[in-house]
Amino acid sequence: MKILHTVEFYNPSVGGAQEVVKQLSEHLVNFGHSVTVATSKLSSRNFKLLNGVKIKEFNISGNQVRGFTGEVEKYKRYLQESKFDVVMNYAAQQWATDLFFQVIDNVVSKKVFVPCGFSALYNNSYAEYFSKLPKILKKYDATIYLSNNYRDINFARKYKVNNRIVIPNGADEREFCTLSTENNTFRKNNKISQDNFLIVTIGNHTGTKGHNEAIKVLRNINIDNITLVIIGKKNTTSKCYKKCKRSELLQNKIISKFSNNKKQLKILHLERDETINALKSSDMFLFLSNIECSPLVLFEAAASGKPFVSSDCGNAGEIAAWTKSGMIAKSIQDKYGYTRVNTQDVIKKITILEKDKQLRSRLGNAGRKSWQNFFTWNKITREYEKLYTKILKK
Question: Would 176 be classed as within a structural domain?
């Protein structure tokens, strides 16, 4: 098949959407298909081919609500004139999908849409956008949802969009093929004692990944030998990053110095291989994000054989049930659709895990087994391939 995937950002940009489309595209190439990714032009990208995936850049930004700037007409011509068997749009509310909506009737390819959560569904500025969306969704040959019970699929059900299918996210079998820590020097390199209970959380400093909540948990939990590692892209202009670094200094240089505990806070920016080493070196994974669709990091925690404690963001509860490796802390959702976790319940669940090594092992082993059986990107991509083939035959 000749396939086009559209996504706002792609490698070397890092993020959940980028990772999903990269995994799907590269696996489909390995299965023998031709895949092109249409995405934003980046000054840091000096290649047009990556691991067999062709990259078509457009200098565009914005979305339907905020407005578009850049090579808008060039992109719309490309969509209408290129001859692909299947076009898949990944994520709503960004230019690569919103501009496709404008020309959808003129694109002869089979069409697939992965909404990726509808994060702005409760934002009044997007009321008109979502009022028009049901009609557009019905023009696709298939719409793929990452959860069986989240705002995007429930929106589709409400408006009788019947081209629905659920295909979850996953974690890369190439990265998590082994759990060996024989050459893993993560603790040593970052001056973390082997005796410390190590908690890892992963998420860029956007202000919505639960860093503030995680630090609050560290401060208030009654465990002396504990280290919290927050891994995210370094961003010196981000308020979240600056606040995290101040908290790191306060915890490690002042609070620990005048107390009897050995609590540590590490704010790290790591390359991918070291991030995976951090996961494998940890005792558990923590994820207190305020808004998600289907967090990849929870699948990666399961793949690394680690139990997790998460806020009830996105379909975290569903992932915990699927993988049998996670605990979901009490949470509420505010009127804007953001998840607010109960940090006292988080502390309670972490304390249970810290005291019970056998429980950690049982949960970790269950997650690892579930991932191997159902949630590798190889298996997930086969589901996409099966769907693409099916709609082509119609």
Answer: no
Same domain membership, residue 216 and residue 164: no
**Vertex 48: Cα angle to 47 and 52 (nearest 5):** 105
Q: Same domain for 304 and 360? A: yes
Query: Are 305 and 370 found together in one domain?
Result: yes
Helix axis angle, 343-355 to 357-374, nearest 10°: 100
Count up the domains in the chain and report the number: 2
Along the 394 residues of the chain, how does pLDDT read in single tens digits?
A: 999 999 999 999 988 999 999 999 999 999 999 999 999 999 999 999 999 999 999 999 999 999 999 999 999 999 999 999 999 999 999 999 999 999 999 999 999 999 999 999 999 999 999 999 999 999 999 999 999 999 999 999 999 999 999 999 999 999 998 877 666 789 999 999 999 999 999 999 999 999 999 999 999 999 989 999 999 999 999 999 999 999 999 999 888 777 777 899 999 999 999 999 999 999 999 999 999 999 999 999 999 999 999 999 999 999 999 999 999 999 999 988 899 999 999 999 999 999 999 999 999 999 999 999 999 999 999 999 999 999 999 8
Any domain includes 267: yes
Residue 177 resides in a domain: no
Q: What is the pTM of this model?
A: 0.91
- Which strands make up the sheet holding 326-328, listed edge to edge? 264-268, 226-231, 197-202, 284-287, 308-310, 326-328
Same domain for 154 and 80: yes
**By residue range, what is the domain housing residue 290?**
186-374
Do 118 and 166 share a domain, yes or no?
yes
List the one residue out of 153, 146, 150 whose CA is nearest residue 168: 146
What end-to-end distance do the CA atoms of the chain give, in Å?
Answer: 15
Domain identity same for 360 and 382: no
